[in-house]
Amino acid sequence: MTPAGPARDPAVLRMVHAVLMPGFTGTSVPGWLARAIEEDLGAVLYFAPNLTGDAAELSGALHGTRPGLLVASDEEGGSVTRLHAQRGSPHPGHGELGAAGDPRRTRTVAAELGRELRAAGIDIGIAPVVDVNVDPANPVIGERSFGSDAGEVARHGAAFVEGLQSAGVAATAKHFPGHGDTTTDSHLALPVIDIDQAVLRDRELVPFAAAIGAGVRTVMAGHIRIPALDSAPASVSPRAYALLRTELGFTGAALTDALDMRAMAEYFGSRTALEGLALGAVAALHAGADLLCLGNPYQGDESDETIFLTVRDRILAALADGSVPLARLAEAAGRVAELAAWCRHRGGR
């Protein structure tokens, strides 16, 4: 059934597309994705299987459909890479850079990584990780962090942002407001970080403030629940986005961590990842997210097109019944457009 009300407006549909960042399967542009791009899709996210062929050729085909499209990839160096998934990244990871203690080297490495991403036609590098890795049993951050000292993480995080963006690639500080003090992987369950407001500000937020001071273009909100901040995970928490905007002064695009992660399904009590994804997308947009990362279509039982259409239609329905204000959608789409303009200008497209 087609949603009633303002969602019928083609301009509204284009704004909904603008805030979505789906993945897709294969090494060429599928028909459903090409149609969505033509109708102002905001971004696409590469996974390793997408890049087994010529990455620059694929990016060229995507940008050729609509030059303003953003192409993103998780490229941290070290163990987290899409371009070098088969052999491992030639760039050192954050842990190695943090241990070396030289932010100038971190900036140089990030600039090299940025040039490689730019050559592959990638606009957004979803890095750096600026989580302070204070729990040695953390199963998902670990060596992806620059270290356990907030000041050092801040210095290296800011240097990484500067290096990556010097190459014309937008950097992403993640996972706001901090995923370092937990033994739970949000891919598998919902982490709860039991710290007070003082620790949150004096430790977790310090590297994010430094990244924002360095001009980071995007910040990723994590699926992390900090009871002292909100009962909801940060990715769907109005208080978390207000903290990011008002206290830290961030004016760029806020994106979510992958909404197909089990943390979302657990929080919403969903039976399937797709249901949790759709509910999470609506809640995140309403809370203050600007770009919704739909996750990995190579996982789960649903097709890439089904994932995209399910989320799109759920947002259209939320607009039609008023549970997501049209003004919030317009604000988010505007921030994505500003990010795309920066990437096109700095990247020379």
UniProtKB/TrEMBL annotation:
The keyword Hydrolase applies. InterPro entries: GH, Glyco_hydro_3_N, Glyco_hydro_3_N_sf, NagZ_Beta-hexosaminidase. Residues 69-338 form the Glycoside hydrolase family 3 N-terminal domain. Residues 84-104 are annotated as: Disordered. One of its GO terms (biological process) is peptidoglycan turnover. Its EC number is 3.2.1.52. This is Beta-N-acetylhexosaminidase. Keywords: Glycosidase, Hydrolase. It comes from Spinactinospora alkalitolerans. It is an enzyme of class 3 (hydrolase). Belongs to the glycosyl hydrolase 3 family. Pfam families: Glyco_hydro_3. GO terms for molecular function: beta-N-acetylhexosaminidase activity. It comes from the Bacteria.
